[in-house]
Amino acid sequence: MITPFDLILILIIFSFVLFGLWFGLIHAIGGLLGTLVGSVVAAKYYKRFGATNLSQVISFIVLFTLGSRVTGFIFYGMEKLLKIANILPGIKTINRLAGGILGLVEGLVIIGVALVFATKFPFPMLITAVGKSELAQFLIGVGTTILPIFPQVLKQVQEVQNVLP
Predict the structure, then answer these.
(1) What's the predicted TM-score (pTM) here?
(2) pLDDT (tens digit per residue) in 8-32
(3) What is the DSSP code (8-state) at residue 111?
(4) Is there a contact between 84 and 2 (Cβ–Cβ < 8 Å)?
(5) What are the TM regions of this chain, as residue ranges (predicted)?
(6) 22: domain range?
């Protein structure tokens, strides 16, 4: 049975796919790498900018956003340079379809990791919604599978979790 939480998850994942289709593969790769760079930068440096729990959470968010946007800007420049190839027949279509596929993968990974992280905290409404959602269980499986690939990031994210009340 599809729950309202499933519909929200589907909408979020669908937005990642649309993002990939609209902007193409190069932009989607930039978004994915931006997410990874933002995560690493934020996890490594957030403690330097915050003394209290709240300030550390805020510094994590700000550093994540900065790392992600700087990487995105670099890929934006690369994308503009490679626009010349779009005059070849079919290249633009292939770029967009591949971007949609990567957008789907990116959405599954990001939502999966976010759900794994979010379910570590005592939010009864979220835990109940996740428990009733088959899609959320699948996404948590994806997130759990992906997290060991980034052991250092996982360790630093767990440190953030230990700081939060």
Answers:
(1) 0.68
(2) 999 999 999 999 899 888 888 887 7
(3) H
(4) no
(5) 7-37, 57-76, 97-123
(6) 4-160
